[in-house]
Design goal:
The complex is a heterodimer of chains A (331) and B (144). Chain A contains 14 helices and 9 strands. Chain A has 331 residues and is of the alpha/beta class. The relative contact order of chain B is 0.24. Chain B starts with 9 loop residues before the first strand and ends in a 13-residue tail after the last helix. In chain B, helix 1 packs across helix 4. The chains are: A alpha/beta (331), B alpha/beta (144).
Chain lengths: 331, 144
């Protein structure tokens, strides 16, 4: 369960609409089921009263939506930001992607968001609803009654190894601010590094060959905000992908991960939206882990204006050969 | 059918100011290095976009080597420092994805180091030849 309820957020939004601070708001919107919450733009209090939700299924990060929306209209936009969203928010500000003056950011605490796929696996069919209770997630089914899943098993992977509960950007904060966590988020990367090359190749072939090139990871990524994207190429030949485990989309994922290297805040949205459940965050985390090991600790988005490691250098940097060696020894 | 000896395909990106001149010097000095090395001249080693390397592998290269000026000697002051960071991360990533780390290399070769150029290329070709063909990153769609 989240520390704040929908009503607290809604009341604050109503007040902000009423005193004219904002004229539209980004928030989570009711979907067909209570576990398929979608991001939504609300233009009035009435719309929000009807469709705004806030519960354990509100994973979406709104930072990227601001890039386009701040260019429209004169008024300010209200946006609710969870702690991890504030890092993307800062990173976009660092890259001058939107006008800070046009945004009213309300920081809200987050207790971690559910992984719907894990919860849906509880029942093959007939899920009526899923609710977050004190004892964990309760899956209400038509045929098997209620099933309770402990909270630690129903949370998404990115929330289990949450990097920070501290907001790094906001205009006002609802509820309590947390601390930067000393998380175990690189453990999975280290486990892969400890394998030999053949095992690693087999792992990634298994994962990446499922890719259907829907581009959802790119579309959701707050670090991917180019208006003209190299992957929007009609001559790329993507549509001619053979329906076998041919692993041809690996290049897309390597390039995409490289494009966001040093700018990725590790928000985990890529893995959340992947319809094929590919652990894409493990690619980004490898870059973050390497950057930390080779060039010193760096958290993208922790402060506005910080210089990204890939547009920086020192004369004493590691040679690529040594770096590969060290990266392999899970330094 | 006659069995032909396996010859690896090697792509070498050489910077115009140091390494390409180094290759020239190797030639002038009659130092032999394998003909499997295909040199692509770039204005600076930092011109090499990571995509170029992936593209080479995708189209069937067995090894890719990038040669530039020694750190501190860059014609454009700092280009090779960026190359160094970029390639460190990219090669580490390729290794993480299960691509043999011996297939990628960065070497600093100055215009005066013809001998080093030839030695580097001989060594790299041998290393890659020992690994055999690159099957892991090739894309059959690109080889038609």
């Amino acid at each position: 369960m989240q520390a704040l309820t929908r009503e607290v957020l809604l009341d604050r939004a109503k007040a902000l609409f009423a005193d004219g601070t904002v004229d539209r708001a980004y928030g989570w919107k009711r979907g067909e089921f209570d576990y398929d919450v979608t991001p939504g733009l609300f233009r009035s209090v009435e719309e929000m009263e009807k469709e705004f939700v806030f519960d354990d299924f509100c994973g979406a990060n709104f930072s990227k939506y601001l890039v386009e929306e701040t260019r429209k209209g004169e008024g300010k936009i209200l946006v609710f930001l969870k702690p991890c969203d504030t890092y993307s928010f800062n990173q976009l500000l660092t890259e001058h992607r939107f006008d800070r003056e046009k945004v009213y950011a309300v920081g809200i605490p987050c207790e971690g968001m559910a992984d719907v796929t894990k919860l849906k696996a509880e029942a093959a069919e007939g899920i009526r609803s899923i609710t977050a209770e004190k004892e964990g997630f309760v899956v209400h089914t038509l045929y098997d009654g209620d099933k309770t899943v402990p909270r630690t098993e129903g949370l998404s992977e990115r929330c289990l190894v949450c990097k920070s509960k501290k907001h790094v950007a906001y205009d006002e904060l609802l509820g309590e601010d947390g601390e930067v966590a000393d998380s175990a988020r690189f453990d999975e990367v280290a486990r892969l590094e400890a394998m030999n090359a053949d095992e690693r190749f087999a792992f990634w072939q298994r994962e990446l060959s499922r890719c259907i090139r829907c581009n959802a990871c790119r579309d959701v990524c707050p670090a991917c905000t180019c208006e003209t994207c190299v992957f929007n190429n009609p001559n790329s030949g993507v549509e001619s992908k053979a329906p076998v485990t041919s692993f041809e989309e690996q290049m897309f994922h390597i390039i995409r991960a490289f494009h966001v290297a040093g700018r990725c805040t590790d928000c985990g949205e890529c893995s959340r939206v992947c319809p094929q459940h590919i652990p894409l965050h493990l690619l980004n985390r490898k870059f973050i882990k390497d950057i930390n090991a080779f060039y010193g600790e760096y958290q993208a988005g922790a402060e506005v204006g910080s210089r990204a490691p890939l547009v920086n250098y020192t004369t004493a940097d590691l040679e690529p050969g040594e770096a590969v060696q060290r990266g392999n020894e899970h330094a | 059918m006659q069995v032909t000896e396996y010859k690896p395909k090697i792509v070498a990106f050489c910077c115009n100011w140091c390494s390409y001149a180094g290759a020239d010097l190797a030639g002038n000095n009659r130092l032999a290095y394998p003909a499997e090395v295909k040199i692509i001249r770039v204005p600076c080693s930092c011109r090499v976009n990571p995509m170029f390397i992936l593209r080479a592998f995708q189209r069937g290269a067995d090894g890719v080597i990038i040669c530039g000026c020694h750190p501190g000697d860059c014609h454009y002051t700092s280009g090779n420092y960026y190359t160094r960071r970029r390639m460190a991360l990219l090669f580490s990533m390729l290794n993480y994805l299960g691509i043999e780390k011996e297939r990628t290399r960065v070497e600093w070769v100055s215009a005066a180091e013809g001998a080093k150029f030839a030695a580097t290329m001989n060594d790299f070709v041998q290393t890659v030849a020992a690994l055999g063909e690159n099957k892991r990153l090739e894309d059959l769609r690109c080889k038609l």
